[in-house]
Amino acid sequence: MIKQVENPILEIHDLTVSYDQNPVLWNVDLSLPGGNLVGILGPNGAGKSTLIKAIMGLISPTSGYVKVFDKPLNDVRARISYVPQRESVDWNFPASVLDVVLMGTYGKLGLFRRPGKKENEIAMKSLEQVGMSGFVSRQISELSGGQQQRVFIARALAQQADLYLMDEPFAGVDMATETAIFQLLKEMTEAGKTIIVVHHDIHSAMNFFDWLIMLNLHLVASGPKELVMNEEMLRKTYGGKLNLLTRVTDLIRQQDFNPLKS
Amino acid sequence: MTFDSNAFLIIFTGSLIAISCGFLGVFMMLRKMSMTGDAISHAVLPGIVIGFFVSGSQRSLEVIIGAGLLGILATLMIDWLRKKARVQLDASIGITFTLLFAIGIILINLLAYKVDLDQECVLYGEIAYLPIDSWITKSGLNLGPRITWLAALNFMFVVGFIYLLYKELILTSFDESFSSVMGIPAKGINLALMSIVSYTTVSSFESVGAILVVALLVVPPATSFLWTKSLMPLLKLTAVLGILIALLGYYLAYWFDSSIAGMMVTVAGIFFGISVLIQGKRPFWAKGTSTVNQPFGI
Description:
Chain A has 262 residues and is of the alpha/beta class. Chain A is built from 10 helices and 10 strands.
């Protein structure tokens, strides 16, 4: 079940990525419409992070190409923002929360120029949006995991991009914060931004995303939530993991979610 | 005590070198690349020899260019071994710099009849001879010690480099993939930093020697990092430490009648030891939650 769209904001064509000759993503071919909250689902090792890294050019694909806003990646970098996994950086780095959020504005500033008043305002507003304005001058080493995650999201917001790619942004974030951030992301998509989130929780995925990409080395599904969230797709994605599947069916039952109805 | 111009010149030059190395060292440390600095300081040897061979002079531009190129080559080799050959970082550093250094020694031996250069000169250096090695123009004008000029020029390069690329250096040190996604060339910034480290190594090796340059790259930043967790104070403290190290190093060396460079590094080591003891003993409530209000100072 792969739905292609007209005038996609992101087009991935026959993408294959391998590490040391071992392919970790096979022939991924999909296109995404703009203004959507997109979730990437799949079991561990399915290539979810690899997919978004390949979209951003952090990993060079073995074959295939990626087009963003109908242009090659290098022409539109300023319009793309990234929320990496929290563990990817050293939080002992000598910087305050504001310093990190200001980094989001560096791309637009260009070489040699320093952030000024305008950039400071953008950073403060972004911190407010994630509910971290009380921590502006806190050292980043003194933050909890969830707070670090929110700082990373604020940094991406400060970049004022059109396409956001987030790698597990809700790992270690409590339910209340997760809902609040999802709400924020919803508002952003309503303003025309596209947000792609690598996510592991099927339950909240059903509630929040508009569009789902299901991945397990191959692309299993890509389409509007109503079309692709069904047992068959989930079984193909998570195949064999019976325990998980029972839980999923339970969840579907609880949600009174019947794919046949729609 | 009367004003001793020689002592002043030595301390002044020593401070310039210690501060230049310290500033670069802070960024090397933040990138977890302190030992790459070590590698570079040894790996530049073949470049120096080749530059020397080509130009016939130890003080020529060719020597600096040769060393700079070798520094970049060493960085690329380390990176390549780590990423493509999947060798661990420490092992790839060890392989790269010993190999390049060995090539340098072989070159020195092969070209020995032509080159007035030996390993000791590169490895140890002697800052005490600085006042007698003056820069005299063709018209006979004495402009003062050559090494002091070199150190001052290097200091200006380092400060200018850090000033201009401050935010890029911070961002690429903290989160390389984020900066790549934004289109800030993380690799280019990294290579620029490595070339300026190579240049600093070369322009300092005559006075403090390659081994002691490494100490100045690593020890003062590591000491400052024990005291502060924000970048601007970190740089300032490193600079103050650099001056103190040069000052105390000189007078202790004078007192014990020993090597100045060696004493400078010993002083640096003592500062570090004291900092570790004090910071280790400080009760947790005295550390508290920091309330630093100044972001980077930009």
